TrEMBL record:
It comes from Streptomyces meridianus. The gene is ahpD. Pfam families: CMD. PANTHER family: ALKYL HYDROPEROXIDE REDUCTASE AHPD. This is Alkyl hydroperoxide reductase AhpD. It catalyses: N(6)-[(R)-dihydrolipoyl]-L-lysyl-[lipoyl-carrier protein] + a hydroperoxide = N(6)-[(R)-lipoyl]-L-lysyl-[lipoyl-carrier protein] + an alcohol + H2O.
Length: 178
């Protein structure tokens, strides 16, 4: 199992990450599609080759093809949107908020899976990318769709753990080469 391989690779000083990795994925109460879509989108967003390499095969195995593609699409479109909207928010000139974005993001309106699943994956990627505007927007859509706070929290817990594991393993790979 790739999850076990990933956990085994986590160094002793990051034992908490190993335990959290097992917990947020291995003990998640999310339905399979929500869980593995979140895992795949976050593995991509983490930018860690090791995390993606280890978790992608299991995600592919646990997702229908349309959900697999939608999770990748969530990571892709949020990579763009998170930079755009985070920048717009951080600029001190509020007039940028009045300008049309002019960026294509059709997949958000027609993701090929349940809208709530895509929104959950988009929220998790936005957590990794640190875009407050996107986090608020996706959380509001999820809550209006009846998704409870515990489910939303589960998604950003997965995001936080995968990001931390990726950072740690990538740092170890560089340190091992030194």
């Amino acid at each position: 199992m790739a999850l076990d391989d990933l956990k085994a690779a986590v160094p002793a000083y990051a034992k908490d990450l190993k335990l959290n990795l097992g917990s947020v994925i291995g003990n998640s109460e999310l339905p399979q599609q929500q869980l593995w879509g979140t895992v795949l989108a976050c593995a991509i967003a983490s930018r860690s080759p090791r995390v993606l390499k280890e978790l992608e095969p299991e995600a592919r195995e646990n997702l229908k093809p349309e959900a697999y593609e939608a999770a990748k699409a969530a990571a892709a479109v949020m990579a763009m949107n998170n930079v755009y909207y985070r920048t717009r928010h951080l600029l001190s000139d509020p007039e940028y908020g009045n300008l049309r974005a002019g960026l294509r993001m059709n997949v958000i309106g027609n993701p090929g899976v349940e809208k709530a699943d895509f929104e959950l994956w988009s929220l998790a990627v936005s957590a990794i990318n640190g875009c407050g505007m996107c986090l608020d927007s996706h959380e509001q859509v999820l809550r209006k769709a009846g998704v409870d706070r515990e489910t939303v929290q589960e998604a950003f817990k997965i995001a936080s753990v995968l990001q931390a594991v990726g950072t740690t393993l990538d740092a170890e790979a560089v340190l091992d080469q030194a």
